[in-house]
Amino acid sequence: MSEQRPTLTTRQGHPVRDNQAMRSVGERGPATLENYQFIEKITHFDRERIPERVVHARGTGAHGYFEAYGKIGDEPASKYTRARVLNETGVQTPVFVRFSTVIGGKESPETARDPRGFAVKLKTVDGNWDLVGNNLKVFFIRDAIKFPDMIHAFKPDPVSNQQEPWRFYDFICSHPEALHMVTWVKSPWGIPANYREMEGSGVNTYKLVNDQGIAHLVKFHWQPKQGVRNLTSQQAAEIQAHDTSHATRDLYDAIERGEFPEWEFCVQVMSDGEHPELEFDPLDDTKRWPEDRFPLLPVGRMVLDKNPDNVFAETEQSAFGTGVLVDGIDFSDDKMLQGRTLSYSDTQRYRVGPNYLQLPINAPQEKAVARTNQRDGQMTFYVDGGEEKHINYEPSLLGGLGEAPQPEKDYHQHVEGHLGRYQTSRTADDYQQAGDRYRTFADWERDDLVNNVGNDLKKCPEVIQLRMVWHLWHCDEDYGRRVAEIAGIDLEKAKALQPLPGKPAPGENRPGSTYSGGQPESGGGKKEPATTEEVASAK
């Protein structure tokens, strides 16, 4: 069948022989800049919408501050990082946070079942740090070259302009790593009650680097002091019937009342390395780090205490990028992180303009004023250089800007491998964590989850129905059985399917891997549903 299809090409007409993975040095990366196929694909994708954001178009924001505890758990923060924003106590670092939905347009309802964006711009004394994440701690895919395909599948049909369940599940069927995220987003966790009672996560794996040049892998998380509350589909429908902006209204009104929402900033850390003892790759953003082995360690707190004065100038023109890091926080070889780092800032230059960082909402604070040799471009209104305006190059014997001093000991990563396109070989946990999540949900969460997926699958072709039930049955037999019953799908027929070509069987690693493992993930979503009174108060 595949041999009869027209061949996928780049815009240059070059045949695409591998559309599943970026070029990288070895299986775990890093990715390489000469990745033309990916660069063409992602930069075109970044320019698909004008003027609203391609994704995260529907959002609201607020100002506030961040305060560090000076510790990571019981240890001094300096043990792990030289980033002053995480080390210095008694300092209130200004922040701007933008909350959002992902798929819907600017006027879409905030009750939509969708991951929620949780983007934080910290204006530190060492420059901006953008932590751009979601409310859920995992994602659908683990290689950035698949991001345009994923969003295209989740967005409306280009012909009918309707979001179709078959498009969503058709994509999921070929990406078993997405089953974990599907289990989260189709449960009540896919509809947070509001932004104040919502977790945040950087999702990707970063690195912390200390003053000795020693690195640790790290995950960043925001835990709401207000608690976590989610909605069932029925509760969301009741709110949407009266208010399509309930979450924006809730945040704005709470801040105006002086009820300032607060989050505790936490990290999970592990030593830098491949960690073959784990049943998953710690760089794989479709997996959670089990909290019983990698606990959430408090680092600081964030308070939102001021609404924007002008929504367009601040919320809509706010621009975030995963590449915006401060000294002491660094990139890992997480392929989604490396792809996002190109895509996000490229999108902002296109959407807002090449000088988007001159806007007050995006510019660094006064103590970290920008001084560059970059010039001109659309909407330039000042030159962000030093006192010597004539010399816009470096180095110069006559003055101009100079490089910052090198740290005494810097982090150097040894990289060795064959350049090629690799998909991760550590796939055994693709079904395990989704099954663990299903089993740790409360009964009411499982009920909502299976009803949502089952009713979606009623609208899909049989080939997608059977494959999805096959996937879910391998995550958890009860999960697959209940969805099949709701959707009217022949469970035995689904169970008789074979793995998709080129995909390992559930519970196995991709061929060629020498790794094996399989410890269940801990934790769960045993939160109580919103009460009738709480639903009514949100209307």
UniProtKB/TrEMBL annotation:
Protein name listed in UniProt: Catalase
Alphabetical keyword list: Heme, Hydrogen peroxide, Iron, Metal-binding, Oxidoreductase, Peroxidase
EC number(s) on file: 1.11.1.6
PROSITE patterns, sorted: CATALASE_2, CATALASE_3
InterPro entries reported for this sequence: Catalase, Catalase_AS, Catalase_clade1/3, Catalase_core, Catalase_immune_responsive, Catalase_sf
Listed Gene3D superfamilies: Catalase core domain
Binding residues for heme: 344
Species annotation: Massilia cellulosiltytica
Residues forming the catalytic site: 56, 134
Residue ranges, annotated region (Disordered): 1-29, 495-539
GO terms for biological process, alphabetical: hydrogen peroxide catabolic process; response to hydrogen peroxide
